Amino acid sequence: MRLATEAAARGAAEKDAELRQELGVMVYFDVAQAQIQTDGQAILDRKVAILNANPAVRIRITGACDERGSDQYNEALGERRAAAVKQYLTGKGIDVARLDQVSNGEKDPVDSGSDEAAWAQNRRAEFVIVSGDMPLAMN
After folding, report:
1. What does the domain layout of the chain look like in residue ranges?
2. Do the Cβ atoms of 77 and 32 come closer than 8 Å?
3. 122 with 109: CB under 8 angstroms?
4. Alpha helices in the chain (DSSP H)
5. The pTM is what?
6. Cβ–Cβ under 8 Å, residues 137 and 53
7. What single-letter DSSP state applies at residue 20?
8. Using one digit for the tens of pLDDT, what is the confidence trace for 113-126?
9. What is the bridge-based pairing of β-strands 99-105 and 58-64?
């Protein structure tokens, strides 16, 4: 009995880790764009399923940019990217009160390089759980 309980607990912990990882998957954008691409929609649809199964979870969406463009431009573009993600999620039925949005502009790059590969990694929306941080589960 104890082994079965321990195995169930391990399975739940593994599932929780998997769901947290999926919630953290970034969405990437084209140069100077805030439109969500098809691959980004698939990522967000998986997040919708997790959020629907875990209604206490709130997330912060952070829009980010590459280093090109002025600080003001990148701050505004990051905000538009976060807003586009938020709008997509609310359009799929997620309560707006569960979604915070911010812009990092070009601050905190994932890749500090100055080439197309680095810039592509920095044009993104990031996701962090801000509350409801309990073991995640799927129905």
Report:
1. 2-131
2. yes
3. yes
4. 2-24, 38-53, 71-91, 116-122
5. 0.92
6. yes
7. H
8. 999 999 999 999 99
9. parallel
